[in-house]
Every structure is written in structure tokens, then in C-alpha cells.
Amino acid sequence: MSQRVFITAGAGGIGKVIAETYVAQGAQVFVCDQDHTAIDNLTEEINGTCVDVTDEAALDAWLQDGIARFGGCDVLINNAGIAGQADPVEALDLAQWRTCLAVNLDAQMITCRAIAPVMKRQKSGVIINLSSTSGLFGAPFRAPYAAAKWAVIGFTKTIATELGPYGIRCNAICPGAVSGDRMDRVLAAEAQARGVAPQDVYQEYASGSSLRRFAEPSEIAQLCLYLSSDAAKFISGQAIAVDGNTETYHSV
């Protein structure tokens, strides 16, 4: 039986690459995304619905639709995320803070809350929550994002202990800087906050990796595929970085 894979923010960027990677392996893929155009442009192999993940009722409805349509869920990938406000702590806006946490953290709770009973009945399942290296290290001028991504790891480790006895594995993936439009926007926002050029910020990010480059979306997708395979059937409760070794920093 092919895997039934649910992916939030799966119609563009990293999420779309993840979706296409699973489709190539014969999986049944069900995605949501807030971008109407991206949903309309999905290939027929990917089932998609337009959903704002901060809308609890809409997100729940999407999940219940998928569960009914496919008869269950084997893999849940919480990919939805936003960069959040990029400013010093004294300039943070509470409304923007709450929005950042709503997308990056609250949505993961909502999806896991709905999927856990299904996977418990199946006595199997894989949950993959997207965190970030900002959930492993401090991130200057990125307090809302870093706070949310640290929380994702704590949430993931906690539900791994709760759901493990039912044969459900839960892991967090912590990408470093990933090439694409979203990262371009992050660089531009941070550059503006610091009063420097975006290229200067890019060089700092890249030099912070031992491999001196950004990750590719396909590298995140391949780790998802591995973690949801039988090859990873004893891996749970982990926060796994895909960051070219960001523990080694280099001056620009």
C-alpha cells in the first residue's frame, strides 16, 4: 500500500519539492497551502486545498477531508512557516509575534492533535515537524522565529514520548539556510533591519556553514523520505540538522 502523506504549505517552495519527491515514490499526497495560484498549478498527482493554517477550523477541516478521502494518514509533514518580524527585541510588535508563533508552532499542534488519534488506531505513523537551525542556536534580530522553532523541537520530543508506544515516530528537521524565494525575503528583511546589503547577509549565512553554501530544497525532501521509511524505523524524538555544519562559524 502506498504511503498517505499530508503536507502543510505543500504547493510551493520546500513543501512542493517534498510533495513531488513523495509522488515520485508512488505516495498519495495531500497538501494545503494559502496560495490559491500555487494550488491551482499543482499537477494532478498532488491533491491540494487552499487553507490558512492560522484558521483552526479550516485546518481541521482539511485534515478531516484527507483522512476521509484516503482512509487514514501514514506521514504528516508540518512544513508551514513564516520568517516573522526581523527587528531588535525592543522594536518587536506583539501582534506580529503572535502571528509568527501561530503559523510556525500553533498549526503544528492543531495538525498533530487531529492526526494522533488516527495514527494511534493504525498503530503506526510518522510525524515530521519542520524546525530550523534557529531552533538550535540564537538568531539575532529573529526572536519570534527562533522562539517558535525552539518550541517546535520541544513539542516534537514531547509527542514522540507520548506516541511512541503506539508505533508512531516523531522527528524534527532543522534546515539551515535553504535556497529559494523565501530565503531571499529573509535576507532582505534582515539586511534592512541591520542597515547592510542583502549580499553581505548572504555571505555571513554561507560562511557559517562548514560547506560554505545554502541547502537545496531537495536535500530537505530526501531526509523526509528517509525518516518516513523503514530504514529509519528506530529513529524518533530527534532534531536533525540539514545545515552543512552550522556549529562552525567563520568571519566574513
UniProtKB/TrEMBL annotation:
UniProt cross-references to InterPro entries, sorted A to Z: NAD(P)-bd_dom_sf, Sc_DH/Rdtase_CS, SDR_fam
Gene3D superfamilies with a match to the protein in the record: NAD(P)-binding Rossmann-like Domain
GO molecular function, one term: oxidoreductase activity
Keyword line: Oxidoreductase
Family affiliation: Belongs to the short-chain dehydrogenases/reductases (SDR) family.
Protein name: NAD(P)-dependent dehydrogenase, short-chain alcohol dehydrogenase family
